[in-house]
Amino acid sequence: MPELPEVETVKNTLKNIVIGKKIIASNIYWDNIIAYPKPKEFKQKIKNQTINDVKRRGKWLMFELDDYFLLSHLRMEGKYFFKHEKDPLNKHEHVTFTFSDGTELRYHDTRKFGKMYLLDKENVNNVKPLSDLGLEPWDENLTPNYLKSKFKNKPVKTELLDQSIIVGIGNIYADEILFLSKINPEEIASNLSTVKLKRIIENTKKVLETAINYGGTTIKSYESSEGVHGRFQSKLLVHTKETCPKCGTKISKIVVGGRSTYFCPKCQK
Question: What is the pTM for the complete model shown?
Fold first, then answer.
């Protein structure tokens, strides 16, 4: 699933393509992708709207239009492709946006799990889905005290994946963050010391910033818009690895909160 670095990469790619484009029509070939409003109303409202910017909040893409924000979650395999309106429609292209210059932005999703919301601009942060989100990794309010107030009696790996606490951390990145922080993924989050919480915050920023610089991580089917592949996979230290890059110990693979988890039993006692 695309996480924060992958969504940031898609955002940056799309900004170079769609800003300034006027939507003159949209077509929806799989209604369930449109979470709000109903598909008919969605098509009516988005017509004649211009894309003025592309932003990101957590794992959500935010297309800033004249009057609305178009929120898009890629879920497992969502992608965007830029084509001409006369190009043949791929069977997995479920939502298309036709621009006034004859080009199109097409949402491609093999699994059909993606979701889109069209929300009023002034209210977008006060209603779901964005109202449920926690802090961005670079928010100045992300402090040890904040984490102490949020972390529960659960494994720290589970809490790092909770999007209502910190947004954008996925399974791969949680493993990398905990390895660099020298914290066992099964350690109870509410018991963590201030020192360990500081390490988590620092390494969250470090891992995600590095991943963004490398275009995210290409795992399984992930690919950003226009064929941009993530190169952070070559920088992974522990996730899917056989031995620890620091001490040479065999990497352990367990399941934490239903997620495959990799860690070094020596470095992360």
Answer: 0.91
Binding residues for DNA: 92, 111, 152
Is pLDDT above 90 for 231? no
Going by DSSP bridges, is the β-strand pair 115-120/34-36 parallel, antiparallel, or unpaired?
parallel
Helices (H) and strands (E) in the chain, counts: 6, 11
What is the DSSP-derived secondary structure letter of residue 121? G
Contact in structure between 15 and 54 (CB atoms under 8 Å): yes
Q: Say if CB 226 and CB 15 are below 8 A apart.
A: no
Q: Which residues are annotated as a binding site?
A: 92, 111, 152
User: Considering only CA atoms, which of 32, 218, 216, 224 is closest in space to residue 114?
Assistant: 32
Q: What distance in Å separates the CA atoms of residue 2 and residue 170, rounded to the nearest whole number?
A: 8
Chain CA centroid to CA 87, Å = 29
Known catalytic residues are 2-3, 59, 259
